[in-house]
Amino acid sequence: MLRTYGPYALRRIGQAIVVVLLAYLFTFFVISILPGDPITSTLRNPENGFTEEDIARIVSYYGLDQPFIVQLVNSLGRFLVGDFGLSLRSNLPVSQLILDALGSTLQLAFAALLVAVVLAVGIAYGTQFLPARYGQGLLRSLPSLFLSVPNFVIGLLLIHLFAFGLGLFSMIDTETPWGTFFAAVALGIPVSAQLAEVLIANLDHESGQEYISVARSRGLRQSKLFLRHLVKPSSLPAVTVLALMVGELLGGALITESIFGRVGIGTLVEGAVASQDLPVLQAVVSLAALVFVTVNLLADLAYPLLDPRVQLGGEPRARALSPAADQEIRSDLQEEVSIV
Amino acid sequence: MTGAALTEKPRAFARTRVIPTTAPVTVIFSFVVVVIVLAWSLAPGLFAQQDPTKGDPADKFLPPSLAHLLGTDQLGRDQFARVVFGAQSSVTSALVAVVIGVVVGGLIGLLAGFLGSWTDVVLARFVDVLLAIPAFLLAVVIVSSLGFQTINAAIATGVSAVAVFARVMRAEVIKVRGSVFVESAYLQGGSSLHILFRHVLPNASRSLIPLAVLQFGLSILVIASLAFLGYGDPPPASDWGLLISSGKDYPRSPWLVVWPAIVTILTVLSINRISRWLRKSS
Fold first, then answer.
1. Beta bridge partners of B72
2. CB contacts, 8 Å: A326 with chain B
3. Alpha helical stretches, state H, A208-326
4. In Å, how far is B77's CA from the nearest CA of chain A?
5. CA distances from B75 to A90, A118, A134, B53 (A)
6. Half-sphere exposure of residue A287, counting CA atoms within 13 Å on the CB side?
């Protein structure tokens, strides 16, 4: 396996780099198909208070007087060396704006990931323990309910109950531990649903396997059986799905931060959309793609090392179908590509 | 065996398995919900007698009653009428999004899977790019680029769904292409186009149906989220996301948030249930 791993890793890394660069170009293209010339209209907007010299500087910096293709190449060149340009709204470097906002969003995203994992594990393993008649049906339908509730509704409900009702956190300063916790719950619930569906499908699959009956007839204790034969095999595909959820956390942060009044990447995007601050949008979207591709690259690289059954070559493991795409289609794909 | 028998079989197979004949109670209930909401979106005037855009300021913030089933909002407009008329744009734009996703994504997947070689490689990277950008962020960027209107929100949601359909379609096309009946159609001298449209497309697109239904529910949520952030039609439009967004400013009148939210959740839940049932039974 190790002989094939090197070329596999190199090919995956190469693909990842190509995808990130293409994502940058794609975003640039989408942003540039705007009707009119938003950069100029923002610059000329008297509210922004740019002087003629500022405008001339920005126009020459972005090469706005150059043809589209030249602008594109220049912009890509700057991206490669980590220069995201200047914000059109505040005239500050975009990288500084992003760095300032990143901490809050990372905190929220990690907390949400934690909430999602705890919830999903609770739901999924709960379905294996509860008697079939009581509770199990309810637990099994929870993921599907979670996926049907808009996450802003969850956020509003939590705020109503815990900020206005119980007064656990204040909406004036939400970046307190409780504020972060409830924002993370709002963001984590839809993610937990998808994770729980994967876990439940895998647990059901594993518990139907013959080696479970064999182990049971050998007199293995319930707890040991559970840990060794159910938890372990079912957790690997869950890691894959977790990597795919990164994109959803980043996208969902936009709404969650807006509702909870947090200052992070999401609110940065919201502000950039409102003021047509294109360099900020371009940078955030490209970085989001970079994060997503990197996390999934790491998962792809780790996968064959963790599961010796994975055959290298051909397609890498299944990718996300959609934020809420259904697990069964996904696990079908996974079986198709990953297990020998 | 004759050629006719070989080509007929898979088609009959496809036809019988798409629409099952029996359904559990929850699925029937789900269909009832979806039919009601679709009826609202087709002919809102039949279901809500009051004007969704004009209200009597004297009647503002009335709690739900017989005269106003879901109460009234800050301008005295009937909330029920606003929800029913909101279905029109919420549901129609979700349909537009799904159609874009299915047609564009399906076409990409079909070409990639059927032509293979470099076409597949190029299209696969394009799909990777669409997947790499978080779907909601992509939708936000596209809608901000096209302009804040519900129809643009629908287009943006559709584009962000293209990758899903492309991947599934490609996998299905590859599966069908390798099947015995396609091989025998080739051996009988069938042209590529004939095989593509007669065998591969009908069989492969079958598996897109449950996914399209699922995406319909998801699109309702995404479009509601975009409307919630104010990226859809401005008021007095009454997209469900916008209703919730404007209702949240009046915590003393919880019915302004609760009812649009319940309608949205019930609709999406029902659609997801139907999708699950379609997939299980096909």
1. B78
2. 210-211, 214, 275-276, 279
3. 210-217, 222-225, 232-260, 265-274, 278-306
4. 22
5. 37, 44, 47, 9
6. 18
Interface predicted TM-score of the whole assembly (ipTM), two decimals:
0.80
Mutation target to probe the A interface, by most A beta carbons within 10 A, among B98, B136, B159, B282 is B136
For the segment B38-42, the average pLDDT, to the nearest whole number, is: 89
Residue A29 has pLDDT above 50, yes or no: yes
Mean pLDDT for the stretch of residues A130-141: 74
Checking if the pLDDT of B49 tops 60, the result is yes
Q: Which residue has the tokens 């009956």?
A: A213
A-chain residues near B163 (CB < 8 A): 322
> What are the C-alpha distances in Å from B93 to residues B63, B204, B234, B280?
30, 26, 15, 27
Measured CA to CA, the distance from residue A154 to residue B248 in angstroms comes to: 12
- For the stretch B212-268, pLDDT in tens is 999 999 999 999 999 999 888 888 888 888 888 888 888 778 888 888 999 999 999
Interval A152-179 mean pLDDT:
82
